[in-house]
Amino acid sequence: MNGEGKRVLIVEDDPGLRFTMTDALEGNGFAVTGADNGDEAIRRLLDEAFDVVVTDLRLPGKDGMEVLRAARGNTPPPSVVVMTGYGSVESAVAAMKSGAEDYLTKPFPVEALLLLLGKILRLRSLEEENRDLKRRIQDRSLYEDLVGGSKAMQGIFDLVSMVAETDATVLILGESGTGKELVARALHRRGKRKDGPFLALNCSAIPESLFEAELFGYEKGAFTGADRRRAGKIEQADGGTLFLDEVAEVPVSAQAKLLRVLEERSFTRLGGSETVHVDLRVISATNRQDMKALVDEGRFRMDLFYRLNVFEIRLPPLRERREDIPLLVEHFIEKLGGDRRVSEKAMARLMDHPFPGNVRELWNVMERASILCGEGTIGPEHLPPEFLGVRASPAAIPLPDEILPLKDAVRRFEAAYIEKALKAAGGSKARASDLLRIGRKALWERLKK
Predict the structure, then answer these.
(1) Residues β-bridged to residue 105
(2) Among 162, 168, 199, 297, which is most exposed with the fewest C-beta within 10 angstroms?
(3) Coil vs helix vs strand at 242
(4) Topology alike, domains 7-131 and 319-388
């Protein structure tokens, strides 16, 4: 057999036997260290790492059982084989109960030792593969739908691993549909508060007049209709993670109180005077690529921005990691269930598409294609028209007969375009805002005009 450089410690006080075993093992590719007593062996185990220890039970000084205990105390522990004389099998069995892998009864041919080491190392290799597989399964469950083998995504996984177990606040930047909440959930699952709650709050979906009540909670009688005390999202997330999506939309009126939560981990409910203390992690996200512009405009506090942006993770758009599209497609097909595959032509169309809606758009495309295809092969005919080279011509854009002031013409076009987006989104304002790549609050303001 080939020992492939595996390190073996032989502990034997008989120099002739020690030499014979050493010579046989080195001839088969093992790296061998010898010790003629238990004290020397234990010193070696403290200073060096071994894959296997082969030790006699009867030794000068500390005996083989003490060598076994010292070996088992190493991380990772080496496998241990004990040698015993004829009539001392009971001692060998006791050693195996204490963690030894196997035993050899003296005298034995060196071939028996080689066969035993081969079996032990094969078993260790299988155990390592099993541990690696479990780690990969665990990692996949921790990252959930966050899929990617590209260099850009491997960088994201590395950043998540680095910051997950800290208490640092994290700001996730990325276009709509890039997976900001998935990253936030991965940070939570890998963090110290993974057993606590994960609460997500979309800051753009809450009217300014209700924002403080939603975030900080309120006392009974704080305003008309407040007939009981209600805990806000911060209090509900105590012991876990609060995810503030679209954090750029936090009203200026609530920013000072949010800053206090980040600095002191305390706040007061609306209409109350009691200070509430919480232990939570705050992760925030925005699709704005330059939050500093809001700070410069006076719409976002500088001190709050720096508190939120202790650690920044910037997610790449799908068009900048096209090599991940086949992986994502495979993942989505598996998630949707059924027996389907994607044809080469359909995959080529997917690879060529710019995906302004990013991974969320790809998921919607695959869900639609799976419905149209049923069981079988997804072809180009199952993809939306824009994937087939169909483009709207300039003549398809309606123009007014009269010449209007540019401002009025833009307003009219915007209204028609928003109406078209709402129809495409089936009336869902949330999906329409994603298609238009504007915040839900911004869409709501335009609809009111």
Answers:
(1) 84
(2) 297
(3) strand
(4) no
Class of domain 396-448: mainly alpha
Contact 83, 106 (CB under 8 A): yes
Terminal Cα-to-Cα distance of the chain (whole angstroms)? 81
**Architecture category of domain 319-388 in CATH:** Orthogonal Bundle (1.10)
**Does domain 151-316 match CATH 3.40.50.300?**
yes
Cα–Cα distance for residue pair 61/49, rounded to 1 Å: 22
Distance CA(302)–CA(63), nearest Å, equals 68
Q: Where are the domains of the chain?
A: 7-131, 151-316, 319-388, 396-448
Instruction: Fold for 7-131, please state it.
Output: Rossmann fold (3.40.50)
Indicate the residue type of 372. L
**Residue 105 and residue 85 in contact, taking contact as beta carbons nearer than 8 Å:** yes
pLDDT in tens, the chain (449 residues): 567 789 999 999 999 999 999 999 999 999 999 999 999 999 999 999 999 999 999 999 899 999 999 999 988 899 999 998 866 778 888 888 889 999 999 889 999 999 999 999 888 888 887 776 556 555 555 566 788 889 999 899 999 999 999 999 999 999 999 999 999 999 999 999 999 999 999 999 999 999 999 999 999 998 888 889 999 999 999 999 999 999 999 999 999 999 999 999 999 999 999 999 999 999 999 998 788 889 999 999 999 999 999 999 999 999 999 999 998 999 899 888 878 899 999 999 999 999 999 999 999 999 999 999 888 899 999 999 888 764 444 444 556 667 778 777 777 888 888 887 777 666 777 777 767 767 777 787 788 76
* Interstrand relation of 31-35 and 79-84 (parallel, antiparallel or unpaired): unpaired
